[in-house]
Amino acid sequence: MFLLQFESPSEKLGIDLIKLLACLNDWGWGQQANAASGMAVNDDCKLKFLELKAKRSYRFLIFKIENQQVMVEKVGSPEESYDDFTASLPPDECRYAVYDFDFTTNENCQKSKIFFIAWSPNTSKVRSKMVYASSKDRFKRELDGIQVELQATDPSEMSLDIVKDRAH
Question: What are the UniProt keywords, alphabetically (predicted)?
Fold first, then answer.
């Protein structure tokens, strides 16, 4: 038996996390995480996204993973605000979202950019965070026309000011 010396508590936490991931893999959870990256996408997700992009029928879409499938949870009407959108995200659960952001450029031109937001609050369950993180790129590829991506673990990371900055 030997004793490991750690420089800091965070270094020990990193080692503990590696051990945990190894155990999860031994129990078969690794295969489930890999399967999550090939998660099914409900056709309604693509249809609603196309309506948002082409017809501007919606201001935002919120997507939820349920029963190994990404599905539309909520649609926001064109009149809804950014505050309405952020209030629609659950405070303790992960979600994907698309937001159609209208803005005026410095040259006084009206423009719009479609944001993809990966919402993963710190208070959500670790398993949920893992499933959403491993499925994000696959799902995002299904939505042709995303212009800006944001990842947020806290409302301050997706404030209106940040969205405005990223749009320009």
Answer: Actin-binding
